[in-house]
């Protein structure tokens, strides 16, 4: 519990505080020794006032006579005063050397105590005061009151100690004794309470003259001593002001131009109003200032004199208010450690503020100037690690507004930047500066012109310890002219690499350049440089063309150098540029002599350009082989190594190379004159012994596999007379050699043996033979194909060159035998392919001519004479698969015979058809050479032809086909749709107005049921059927009628069953409905052709004279119940 303050003291005087061992008024327990020391000092002063009063009264009258003179008091006065003063020290002693009194007419009376010494009971010195003067208030004396007004201490020695925790101890004189003041706020409380004591409160001014101050800072580990300082304390009511002025001794050998001075001002308002503190310094060492406050700790690494002003305050609780400062720093050195080499600078300036609650420094301006450069910046920094009351580091961000870089011997002219920023953390003990990021920019193109700079970036770490400086710095430049790059490269660092880049990197722009510097004081610097470049010229080998439009990346470090190209090209005499993207020039050891350079070669170019480059010094490959550099066209992607010594006058034997690559899109008309040799990809290998090209190629589109070997070092100019090997035939072969087969008629690919003869002055001749293994052939227009797994034989011979031709072609495979020749149209493509005979699968045996119709169109087919057998066509055409449609192929047929079934054919046959997934078109012919018909054909099931046949004389068609010889006249429409079974059709027959005469079957049927009139009609004018319909199945051997009916005025009849075409035997059944015109009334309950009452029948035997069986009782069965008694229709299996 806070105790009430005790203001009473012995003999009428007191000291602020409570009894020994009790908490102080502010709640903070103070050590007894500290309270005793402070109380002893106050005791001496208070009793001195009382003694001064006694002396003043004793000599008042005498003093009037001795005005203006010092009146010494007798010795016993000093002794007695010492005894009186010692009584309040609890065993301590006060010794006074002399007491004097001085009166002036116009000045305040003054009592002076000379050589005052205070010791503790144990003999320890508590205070030494050379002279203590007390000036009395005249007006108070006239009122018979002794009241001190001015207190003067001359030659006092004050010891002030700041402990690590920031608390203060105070001591007087040369003794070791000190009084604990506590923290700043506690010290201010002591001052306020002391000045409020009755004995002190009347004092208006306390003046310490000739003050010797010793300030010991345990936190900074420093001790400062100043002499002949002045301290003036004035109070007016509750307000207090203090001023301290002193000169600091010269540092070092005393060569400083002026002494350092310090002026401190303290202004304390009335109780609870806080305090204002200001300081003026001039020529004070930066490190001395840095040790006084955390906000000034950043000055510690500087060895220079500082002048400026600092202003701050304390709030009513004794806490520090924001600090504002202006500092001018003179020339000096930057040296955080004694072992670190000093870095000189010309001066600096700082306008800043500090917010203690945020522990934040804000720099309104920070300017620095040195021989190596200068900058002006603004920013802020936080004090890091303030747990102990003193920062371990500063973490800040600064923005630059003016930066000049001018390291001696580094840049040809200074580089200026008008903007930038830096993030950093500076640790103070030991010193370490971490640059998280530093960026310098300029918005004025001319500002960085000196070094070609517009942006500089960096990061790094700088430390100083007992070994000196340690630097790890990474710098980056966003863009710089390549010619100015050397201006950023120190001459002494990697000089050979620097020299090579200077001579061989010509023009262009360098971007994203970075330099990594690792430096330990006393050791050789380690520099690693990397940079990107563009629009530059690079010279890799003196005898080769310069690389132009180069861009890429270069790096050097630890005695090595590498330059990589992301883009760049070399332009040889012929063939256009070579793209060298990905190539690398490197030197693994820059210290050897001669240095060996190695080029990791990666190029992409035309083949001509690659050969032209390989024909330059020191290679001369093509000249030595007697070949032109225009040997082939295409693209060349080359990879390999080229090694050579970095010296002047390199010759061919000095260069070692091993180049391999891909040649793509190759085209050559010189390898085989008159023909084009092409390849998607060939392998090239170039070594000092020779050049080889190998791989799969195509001659006029025909795949082949071969090797081209070009020996080096000879000039014979020899070349192969022929090329032989294996060639793969397929669709490309057909097109390339102009065979003229329909597109898609050849699939797959298979090997063939070929030879190409190259007679001098004549077109090359070729021949080819193949077993067709792996080759699929198809003639979709005629339904023939050879599967790729099939076998056969093919032989082709002809001429290459400007006018190719196939003189002979023979194909024997999968039932097809074709022999002929092919002529090509002017400009290429098929003109005419004539085959004297084409035999195919037993269904085609005729001469065939293919007529070209132009690019992209299948040739027209013309067949004159011969025959086609549709019975076998589908079976032959469905066997191989693998063929693709040849498009809408026109087919013109003028056949001797088109056989449909064993007993049915059209002879002669004319047709104009197209083939597009099957046959489509129109035709005409005579049924079995007798009855003319016309019709259309379309693709049916399984690719077989579906027919629609029409005739205006149905009776003649039935008679010619051998189906029904007793019919006359009538119109007919017959549809035949192929079935899945070979040679079988589903048929639909519609006949109108046909007359039947002398039909033995009908006559027998009419006779069986005793219809005499119907028999007479049948044998006479005949029976007319106005409408006949039938659905049937036609096979090569029989016709199966599944449903048929015929109706007319006299008769209605239905029929179903089987008719054997080969034997003329029938087996039919049905219903016979006489007088159909009347009987048909009940047909709504029966089948078509059957009346309400009808007679069932069955007819068997030869069609010319069948036997008839009837069931008379069936006439009694109404038609609606007739199906209950109807027998199943005859079928080929059970029908006779």
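^ structure tokens above, recovered residues below v
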């Amino acid at each position: 519990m806070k105790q009430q303050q005790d203001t009473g003291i012995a003999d009428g005087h007191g000291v602020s505080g409570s009894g020994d061992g009790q908490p102080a008024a502010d709640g903070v327990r103070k050590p007894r020794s500290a309270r005793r020391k402070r109380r002893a000092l106050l005791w001496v002063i208070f009793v001195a006032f009382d003694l001064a009063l006694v002396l003043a009264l004793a000599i008042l009258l005498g003093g009037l006579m001795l005005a203006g003179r010092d009146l010494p008091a007798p010795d016993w006065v000093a002794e007695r005063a010492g005894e009186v003063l010692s009584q309040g020290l609890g065993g301590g002693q006060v010794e006074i050397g002399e007491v004097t009194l001085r009166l002036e007419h116009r000045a305040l009376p003054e009592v002076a105590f000379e050589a005052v010494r205070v010791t503790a009971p144990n003999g320890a010195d508590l205070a030494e005061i050379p002279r203590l003067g007390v000036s009395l208030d005249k007006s108070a004396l006239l009122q018979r009151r002794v009241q001190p007004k001015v207190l003067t201490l001359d030659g006092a020695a004050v010891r002030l100690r700041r402990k690590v925790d920031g608390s203060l101890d105070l001591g007087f004189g040369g003794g070791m004794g000190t009084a604990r003041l506590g923290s700043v706020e506690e010290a201010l409380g002591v001052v306020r309470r002391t000045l409020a004591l009755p004995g002190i409160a009347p004092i208006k001014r306390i003046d310490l003259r000739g003050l010797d101050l010793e300030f010991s800072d345990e936190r900074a580990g420093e001790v400062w001593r100043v002499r002949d300082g002045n301290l003036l304390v004035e109070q007016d009511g509750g307000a207090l002001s203090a001023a301290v002025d002193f000169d600091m001794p010269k540092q070092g050998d005393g060569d400083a131009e002026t002494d350092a001075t310090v002026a401190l001002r303290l202004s304390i308002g009335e109780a609870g109003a806080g305090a204002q503190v200001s300081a003026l310094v001039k020529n004070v060492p930066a490190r001395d200032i840095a040790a006084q406050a955390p906000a000034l700790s950043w000055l510690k690494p500087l060895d220079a004199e500082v002048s400026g002003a600092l202003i701050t305050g304390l709030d009513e609780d004794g806490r520090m208010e924001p600090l504002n400062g202006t500092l001018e720093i003179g020339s000096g050195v930057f040296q955080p450690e004694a072992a670190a080499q000093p870095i000189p600078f010309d001066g600096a300036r700082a306008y800043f503020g500090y917010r203690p609650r945020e522990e934040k420094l804000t720099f309104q301006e920070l300017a620095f100037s040195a021989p190596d450069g200068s900058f002006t910046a603004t920013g802020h920094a936080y004090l890091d690690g303030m747990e102990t009351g003193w920062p371990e580091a500063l973490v800040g961000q600064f923005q630059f507004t003016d930066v000049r870089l001018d390291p001696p011997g580094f840049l040809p002219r200074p580089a200026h930047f008008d903007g930038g920023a830096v993030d950093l953390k500076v640790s103070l003990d030991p010193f370490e500066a971490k640059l998280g990021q530093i960026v310098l920019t300029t918005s004025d193109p001319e500002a960085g012109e000196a070094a070609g700079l517009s942006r500089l970036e960096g990061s790094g770490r700088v430390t100083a310890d007992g070994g000196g400086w340690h630097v790890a710095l990474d710098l980056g430049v966003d863009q710089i002219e390549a010619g100015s790059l050397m201006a950023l490269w120190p001459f002494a660092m990697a000089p050979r690499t620097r020299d090579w880049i200077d001579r061989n990197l010509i023009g262009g722009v360098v971007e994203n350049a970075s330099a990594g510097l690792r430096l330990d004081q006393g050791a050789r610097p380690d520099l690693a440089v990397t940079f990107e470049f563009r629009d530059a010229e690079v010279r890799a080998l003196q005898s080769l063309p310069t690389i132009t439009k180069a861009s890429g990346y270069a790096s050097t470090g630890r005695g090595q150098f590498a330059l990589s190209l992301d883009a760049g090209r070399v332009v040889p005499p012929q063939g256009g540029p070579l793209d060298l993207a990905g190539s690398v020039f490197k030197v693994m050891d820059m210290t050897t002599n001669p240095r060996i350079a190695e080029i990791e070669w990666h190029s992409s170019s035309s083949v001509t350009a690659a050969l032209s480059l390989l024909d330059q010094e020191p290679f001369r490959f093509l000249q030595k082989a007697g070949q032109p550099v225009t040997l082939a066209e295409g693209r060349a992607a080359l990879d390999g190594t080229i090694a050579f010594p970095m010296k002047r006058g390199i010759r061919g034997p000095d260069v070692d190379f091993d180049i391999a690559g891909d040649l793509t899109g190759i085209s050559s008309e010189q390898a085989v004159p008159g023909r084009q040799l092409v390849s998607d990809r060939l392998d090239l290998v170039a070594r000092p012994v020779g050049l080889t090209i190998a791989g799969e190629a195509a001659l006029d589109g025909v795949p082949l596999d071969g090797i081209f070997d070009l020996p080096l070092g000879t000039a014979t100019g020899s070349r192969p007379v022929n090329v032989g090997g294996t060639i793969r035939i397929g669709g490309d072969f057909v097109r390339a050699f102009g065979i003229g087969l329909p597109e898609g008629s050849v699939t797959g690919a298979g090997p063939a043996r070929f030879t190409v003869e190259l007679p001098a002055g004549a077109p090359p001749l070729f021949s080819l033979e193949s077993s067709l293994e792996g080759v699929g052939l198809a003639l979709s227009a005629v339904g023939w194909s050879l599967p790729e797994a099939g076998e056969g034989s093919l032989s082709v011979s002809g001429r290459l060159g400007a006018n190719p031709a196939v003189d002979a072609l023979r194909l024997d495979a999968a039932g097809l035998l074709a022999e002929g020749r092919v002529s090509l149209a002017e400009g290429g493509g098929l003109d005419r392919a004539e085959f004297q005979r084409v035999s195919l699968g037993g269904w085609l045996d005729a001469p065939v001519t293919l007529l070209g119709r132009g690019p992209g169109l299948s040739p027209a087919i013309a067949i004159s004479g011969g025959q086609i057998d549709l019975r076998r066509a589908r079976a032959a055409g469905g066997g191989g698969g693998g063929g693709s449609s040849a498009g809408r192929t026109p087919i013109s047929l003028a056949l001797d015979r088109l056989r449909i079934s064993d007993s049915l054919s059209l002879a002669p046959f004319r047709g104009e058809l197209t083939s597009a997934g099957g046959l489509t078109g129109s035709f005409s012919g005579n049924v079995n050479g007798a009855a003319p018909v016309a019709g259309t054909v379309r693709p049916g099931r399984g690719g077989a032809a579906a027919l629609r046949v029409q005739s205006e004389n149905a009776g003649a068609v039935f008679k010619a086909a051998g189906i029904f010889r007793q019919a006359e006249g009538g119109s007919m429409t017959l549809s035949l749709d192929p079935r899945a079974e070979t040679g079988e059709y589903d048929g639909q027959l519609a006949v109108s107005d046909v007359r039947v005469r002398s039909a033995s079957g009908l006559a027998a049927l009419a006779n069986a049921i005793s219809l005499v009139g119907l028999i007479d009609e049948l044998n006479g004018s005949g029976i007319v059927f106005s409408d006949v319909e039938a659905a049937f199945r036609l096979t090569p051997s029989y016709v199966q009628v599944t449903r048929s009916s015929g109706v007319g005025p006299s008769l209605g009849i239905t029929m179903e069953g089987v008719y054997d075409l080969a034997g003329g035997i029938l087996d039919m059944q049905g219903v016979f409905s006489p007088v159909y015109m009347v009987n048909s009334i009940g047909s709504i309950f029966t089948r078509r052709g059957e009346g309400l009452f009808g007679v069932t029948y069955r007819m068997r035997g030869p069609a010319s004279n069948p036997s008839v069986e009837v069931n008379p009782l069936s006439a009694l069965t109404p038609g609606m119940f007739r199906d209950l008694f109807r027998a199943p229709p005859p079928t080929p299996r059970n029908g006779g």
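The radius of gyration is 64 Å.
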